[in-house]
Write a structure and sequence with these properties.
Strand order of the largest sheet: 4-3-24-23-22-5-6
Strand content: 15-25%
Distance between the termini: 28 Å
Helix content: 10-25%
Structural class: alpha/beta
Radius of gyration: 27 Å
């Protein structure tokens, strides 16, 4: 249903035909994620399961791409056809398969499958969702918000939430906000739009889109000026004392001074010399200019930081107008943060031992916490903005302490503990390692010797070197352009790319339909898997129908991402409560079947026979490394293994007996200070989260960024192309910075004075909710919400329509007034508008007539700059799609029967849904 992954209890009745039917869904009160709480999506899961849009059999295209004309075929024919397309690709050139998945919650498996195939071209949806957030968090502090961490809901006293729409982690956040408000903690919502969480905040800060980083760094300046930073925390747990090479002539200018053993150095102010940063008993200097052994000069990170953020550029008066926040408000919020952190300090009488062996009798907490998501991430300055927020947290000493932000196992872990990206593709063989990872410097880029990108999405190149989630949004346009090369097969799962929130839908559909001069499609073959008849189904040559979430086995694995809480490690499963009444297969099981036909390593035994019966068998018997598999609970044949152990043939049964989840609580001594707590590090090794203890310090100063800057300055063996040097030098600052979003800088502000945003509603999740009969009653259409200032300026009235124009296109949409909105902003709910013929909706359905997308105003590329280049509309560091940078103008329009542009209807391979649904009459 969504990525929150709440536990549910499904009640079954016998139908008149004797088959079990889903009667009622309620929250599982024992489940650690939601403790019985369900949102509208979870409660409406019956309608998701019985949706008339469900696909029924494998489909082979018979009409033109995009028309939706198919013939039904049998599974064996479908898998044979897929194998016939994919087998020669693997033997000839595996990179000619691009395998990308959307909101796939089994990415450890799908990524592993792609690795066995041998293609370097695999990733999931994170490139247009939240890679800025994830990468910035992991590079800075070993984890990020949401799926990686959570506020200390029980102890925090001031909570700031930035750019979080209502769909993200909705039940845990709602429960947490309830606990905060029940005990009087203050909640500050920072968002251009006051809906959902921001509507119940004690204070709403209606910030101008794209300026969050500027606001945050103004708060940092105020804290530095007041001396309200946690110096002891910075000295112990961050690289603030590290010495930075300040010799402009050095090949290592801006990098850390290191000893012969490679360890970064600090200046011990007692010994009067440079020593290893982790030496016991050191007394680091936080400011000064020091001589290095080779005759150069070095300065601690903290002094460089202070110089940068005490500059006038970040003064409240300097940023107030851009941010839409008064200087007085900025100063007051900074003072409130300082007061909560230092005047309301928490002291727990809990002894613990740190990574250096030093014993501490108490745990000191700073009860300030933050949470953020796509609102600050989906901008071309998003990576540095996310880093700025982490900098603010760390300066306050409020990460991994009582009352602050805390990590969920298996996080935290430093970026060095993650693999670097792998991209060596060899015909007929597996890839040389995991596709996605965290580059340490230019040496890890996925480039051919001549500088050509190895990946179809150009991830891990000079254009976007830290693209830890790949660039799924660039796959179709790059394949269509043959840049860096063409592909033979596009294979996608749960990825509605022809109707995607971050891409220009009309342009993508044209690319998918495009033909060469010989009449063949530019993208020769498209295989697609989904449970429902989405817009993307119409563009597939072969459709592999998936089950609903109530008809399948699945694991929410610690190999993917955490699901639980900061006090415990947990994972969970889905298992089928009803059997499909259609000829469909769970995609993961179908992928195993296909892998067997292709004889992929890891999926077949030495004699060529299949290794796993289906995905459930894989969940139990696959081992990623000895003793560690997809599920951590009840390992070993007798079920005694807790985290580590050999496969247990009854493992799934044990999960079912326990309500579908496994949980292992962290000992009290290990609950806080996880990166530096010896007890936590040992516990994590015991549970299989790590193979050895890996303590580390937080990166206020991010050395990998400086390595790329050095290359752009002409130093080092691997050099960027000349046209990118200026951008790398300007945006890859190793300390967080703010710069104007690229689209905003490339258009005339007077012609496009407004920001245009989308948010995802709590009652929907991506496209899938709009076929749900219950949820459609909440969101059947989506008006364009207009601020009061804009509404009155243009003389809008209830029922009016408007033309909204960007440099990329124009749409006609219904409008509605919203006063609780940044005055320079318009917005709408995303993924409500639908193409006629999709999702089994009738042609006159409100989603297909008055519903709309902002996508027609967005482009993957920025407007031409006149330099002959087409620059990506994305973050220059990670490649995250910058769809929240959209600038528009608005004018009143004549009323219309439907929104525009009106895309021609596709044929529905599942027909149309009924006029009425009388659910439950068939039960006995």
């Amino acid at each position: 249903m969504c990525a929150c992954r709440c536990g549910i209890d499904v009640h079954i009745r016998t139908g008149a035909d004797g088959a079990p039917k889903v009667r009622y869904i309620e929250g599982n009160r024992d489940h650690p994620v939601n403790r019985g709480v369900l949102c509208a999506k979870g409660s409406a899961g019956i309608m998701q399961h019985y949706s008339p849009a469900r696909l029924r059999k494998p489909l082979k295209r018979v009409g033109e791409r995009g028309a939706g004309e198919f013939e039904e075929i049998e599974w064996e024919e479908a898998l044979d056809l897929a194998a016939a397309w994919l087998g020669p690709v693997r033997e000839r050139d595996p990179k000619k398969l691009a395998f990308f998945t959307g909101r796939d919650q089994s990415q450890s498996f799908t990524g592993w499958w792609a690795q066995q195939f041998g293609t370097p071209n695999y990733a999931a949806h994170g490139g247009f969702c939240s890679v800025n957030m994830a990468a910035a968090g992991i590079y800075t502090m070993g984890g990020a918000f949401w799926e990686f961490g959570e506020p200390d809901w029980e102890k925090t006293r001031l909570f700031m939430i930035f750019g979080v729409a209502e769909d993200h982690d909705s039940n845990p956040i709602k429960m947490g906000l309830g606990r905060l408000k029940a005990r009087g903690a203050k909640v500050i919502g920072v968002n251009p739009i006051r809906s959902g969480y921001n509507a119940i905040a004690d204070e709403w800060v209606g910030i101008t889109p794209g300026t969050d980083g500027l606001f945050i760094l103004a708060l940092v300046q105020e804290l530095l000026k007041a001396g309200k930073v946690d110096l002891d925390y910075l000295i112990r747990y961050t690289n603030a004392p590290f010495l930075v090479n300040r010799d402009p002539e050095s090949a290592e200018f801006g990098l850390f001074i290191r000893s012969e053993n490679g360890k970064p150095q600090i200046w011990d102010r007692v010994a009067g010399r440079a020593v290893d940063h982790d030496a016991p008993g050191v007394k680091p200097a936080m400011k000064g200019d020091f001589a290095t052994p080779n005759g150069g000069r070095a300065t601690p990170v903290f002094e460089l930081l202070a110089r940068k953020y005490l500059a006038s550029d970040y003064a409240p008066e300097a940023v107030a107008e851009k941010c839409g926040i008064s200087a007085e408000t900025i100063r007051r919020i900074a003072a409130e943060l300082a007061h909560a952190a230092f005047e309301e300090e928490i002291v727990l009488d809990q002894p613990w031992t740190d990574w250096k062996g030093e014993r501490h009798e108490t745990m000191i907490g700073r009860p300030v916490s933050f949470h953020a998501m796509r609102g600050i991430s989906a901008h071309s300055n998003g990576f540095q903005t996310c880093r700025a927020l982490h900098l603010l947290q760390i300066l306050l000493g409020s990460v991994e302490v009582p009352g602050g932000m805390r990590f969920k196992p298996p996080y935290p872990k430093p970026y060095e503990a993650h693999p670097a990206p792998h991209h060596k593709s060899t015909p007929g063989e597996a890839l040389d390692g995991p596709h996605l990872g965290y580059p340490r410097g230019p040496e890890d880029l996925a480039l051919e010797p001549d500088g050509t990108a190895k990946r179809i999405d150009k991830a891990f190149t000079w254009e976007h070197p830290l693209s830890a989630h790949g660039l799924m949004h660039m796959v179709i346009s790059n394949a269509h352009a043959g840049d860096p090369y063409g592909i033979d097969v596009l294979f996608m799962y749960m990825a509605n790319m022809s109707w995607n929130s971050s891409m220009n839908s009309g342009a993508v559909m044209d690319m998918l339909r495009a033909k060469r001069e010989d009449g063949e499609y530019v993208i020769p073959k498209i295989i697609y898997s989904d449970a429902y008849s989405s817009e993307m189904v119409a563009f597939a040559d072969l459709v592999l129908p998936d089950t609903t979430y109530l008809e399948r086995h699945d694991c929410i694995s610690l190999l993917d991402r955490p699901i639980c809480e900061a006090d415990a490690a947990a994972d969970s499963i889905r298992w089928p409560v009803v059997e499909p009444d259609r000829d469909v297969r769970g995609f993961q099981s179908a992928l195993i079947d296909l892998g067997v036909k292709l004889k992929l390593p890891g999926l077949v035994n030495p004699d060529g026979t299949r290794k796993f019966k289906d995905y459930a068998d894989y969940m139990v018997n696959h081992q990623r490394r000895p003793g560690v598999g997809p599920l951590a609970g009840w390992r070993n044949e007798d079920g005694s293994g807790d985290g580590r152990g050999e496969p247990n043939p009854r493992q799934i049964e044990r999960y079912i007996e326990n309500g579908g989840f496994w949980i292992s609580h962290i000992p009290d001594e290990a609950k806080y200070f996880k990166p530096w707590n010896a007890a936590y590090q040992d516990w994590a090794v015991e549970k299989g989260l790590f193979d050895k203890p890996q303590p580390y310090v937080f990166n206020l100063y991010l050395e990998p960024l400086r390595k790329f800057q050095l290359a752009a300055e002409g130093k080092g063996e691997r050099q960027p192309p000349d046209h990118l040097r200026g951008q790398i030098r300007a945006t890859y600052d190793p300390l967080p910075i703010w710069y104007q979003p690229f689209e905003e800088a490339s258009v005339e502000a007077g012609n496009y004075p407004l920001h245009a945003l989308t948010q995802r509603p709590m009652a929907m999740y991506h496209s899938w909710g709009s076929q749900n009969a219950w949820l459609r009653q909440i969101h059947g259409m989506n008006p364009l919400y207009v601020s009061g200032d804009v509404w009155r300026e243009h003389g809008f009235e209830d029922g009016d329509w408007a033309l909204l124009t960007s440099v990329h296109g124009e749409i006609r949409v219904p409008v509605a007034l919203m006063e609780a909105l940044n005055p320079k902003t318009v917005w709408t709910w995303n993924a409500i508008g639908k193409r006629k013929g999709a999702w089994a909706l009738k042609p006159d359905a409100p989603e297909a007539t008055k519903g709309f997308l902002l996508n027609h105003l967005i482009n993957e590329l920025l407007p031409p700059k006149g330099d002959g280049m087409r620059w990506a509309n994305s973050d220059p560091i990670t490649g995250q799609a910058a769809w929240y940078d959209l600038r528009v103008r608005i004018r009143k329009a004549d009323p219309a029967e439907h929104s525009e542009p009106a895309i021609p209807a596709q044929v529905s391979p599942v027909g149309e849904g009924p006029d009425e649904i009388a659910y439950g009459k068939e039960w006995t």
